[in-house]
Structures are given as structure tokens and as C-alpha cells.
UniProtKB/TrEMBL annotation:
It comes from the Bacteria. The lineage of its organism: Bacteria, Bacillati, Actinomycetota, Actinomycetes, Pseudonocardiales. InterPro entries: ANL_N_sf, Rv3268. This is TIGR03089 family protein.
């Protein structure tokens, strides 16, 4: 079973539950995703990766993106079809990158990071693809062609089983539960930032309030407005 399927197995009991609230203090934006919406983006991404790039379990997918609600769909979609998320583009089936980074790779997907989920205003250069515009045309449901074994690499050099075990152990150590609303300002670096900043709260079925480009002066107000119950260590 893939890492995404293990996460969704717990979360889908409450599909309407808010799962991710994303702030970007530099842009002044706030976006909230439910469990169902998050699953939808993950399914679209997984279908797109399989149909467009023939991604199979164990294939590398490079993710060079900030902590953002669109990054959640990319990561969960990659894991759902069995991909191994890495930082460097060498040998990756596809490289996901932001509009301000130029990557020389055979297959590049540019993620707009637009707060409202719009695609790029102009086509990306060099044959790169507009992830949001392309992936949104893919199916809303994903059924893997083959199961993902637990010993398949999923994040850096760690396998599906290793990542899941570590994420659940760290969540338990922090005392996180499905009732928690967790504030984080962590960067989602590969692998440690993604593990601690995204997978730990999701493994506990907690609501993640992610603040990107955080303004320290606004964090107290964010905690109060979102009624957060825990902070992730920075």
C-alpha cells in the first residue's frame, strides 16, 4: 500500500473535514482544503504522472517546491502512484519546480503557486508543462495499476514502511491527535522538512495550518484565528 493510501485510509472517514489551511504572508493569502479536495488533487496528479510520464513504483520524481497547498497535491499524487520523492533532478521522471526556477531536465512541470489555483499566465519556456492546467484535466479518482510494496523507496532513501513508521512515531511523541490544529512555519525540504512539516501532522489526522513566508509579528494572530492547539518545532 502506498504512503498516500495509508494516509487517506485514516482521513477519508471525514471527507468534509478541513485538512490543510495555507497562509502565504508575503502574498496575504489564505486557502483551506478539505480532505476530499486534497484527495481530488492527489488523484489528478497521480493520474497525470502515470498517463503523461509512465511513472511506476520506485521511479524518482523530483519536487523542488515550497510549503504550499499545491505542493500537497504534488506529493500525495507522486506517492499514490508509487514514486520516490527526491530533491535533485538527475534521473527523475519529472521535475516539479516553481516559476522562478529554471531546470534543465527532460521533463519539467512548473507549478504556478497561484493562491487561487490558476495556471501560469504565460506558457512555460523550454518545453516545460504547466502543472495546474494539465493535471486538472485528469481523472478525479485514481486506482493504481499495481500495489506499491512497503519496501518501495518513497522519500529520499527511506521506504514507504520506514516513512510511515517514522511519521506515526514522531506524531505520537508530540502527542498529536485528530483533534489537533497544528501551526507550522517549516520549509518542506526533502526529506526531513516534508517528513516533519507535512507527514507528521497528516499521520495523526490533524489539521495543518501551514504559514509560508511567515511574518513573526502575525503568528500570534494566526494561532488565535485558527484556534491552533500545537506548534511544530521549527
Amino acid at each position: 500500500m502506498s504512503l498516500t493510501e495509508q494516509l487517506l485510509r485514516q482521513l477519508l472517514a471525514s471527507p468534509a473535514k478541513p485538512l490543510i489551511t495555507h497562509y502565504d504572508d508575503r502574498l496575504g493569502s489564505r486557502v483551506e482544503l478539505s480532505v476530499a479536495t486534497t484527495q481530488n488533487w492527489a488523484a489528478k496528479t497521480a493520474n497525470w504522472l502515470v498517463d503523461e510520464f509512465d511513472v511506476e513504483p520506485g521511479d524518482a520524481v523530483a519536487v523542488r517546491l515550497p510549503a504550499h497547498w499545491q505542493t500537497v497535491g504534488v506529493l500525495l499524487g507522486a506517492w499514490w502512484c508509487g514514486a520516490r520523492v527526491v530533491a535533485e533532478p538527475d534521473g527523475a521522471r519529472v521535475v516539479f519546480t516553481s516559476p522562478d526556477e529554471e531546470i534543465d531536465a527532460p521533463a519539467v512541470a512548473v507549478v504556478s503557486l497561484d493562491p487561487m489555483g490558476r495556471g501560469l499566465s504565460t506558457p512555460p519556456a523550454g518545453g516545460a508543462l504547466d502543472y495546474l492546467s494539465e493535471a486538472r484535466m485528469s481523472g478525479d479518482q485514481f486506482v493504481p495499476m499495481q500495489p506499491t510494496p512497503g519496501d518501495t523507496p518513497a522519500l529520499g532513501s527511506s521506504t514507504v514502511d520506514e516513512v510511515w513508521t517514522e511519521a506515526t512515531a514522531r506524531a505520537a511523541k508530540l502527542g498529536l491527535t485528530a483533534a489537533d490544529r497544528v501551526l507550522s512555519t517549516m520549509d518542506w525540504t526533502v526529506p526531513d522538512g516534508i517528513l516533519d512539516g507535512l507527514l507528521v501532522p497528516l499521520a495523526a489526522s490533524a489539521h495543518l495550518v501551514q504559514v509560508t513566508n511567515a511574518d513573526p509579528a502575525k503568528l500570534s494572530a494566526r494561532r488565535e484565528a485558527e484556534r491552533t492547539t500545537a506548534d511544530l518545532p521549527s
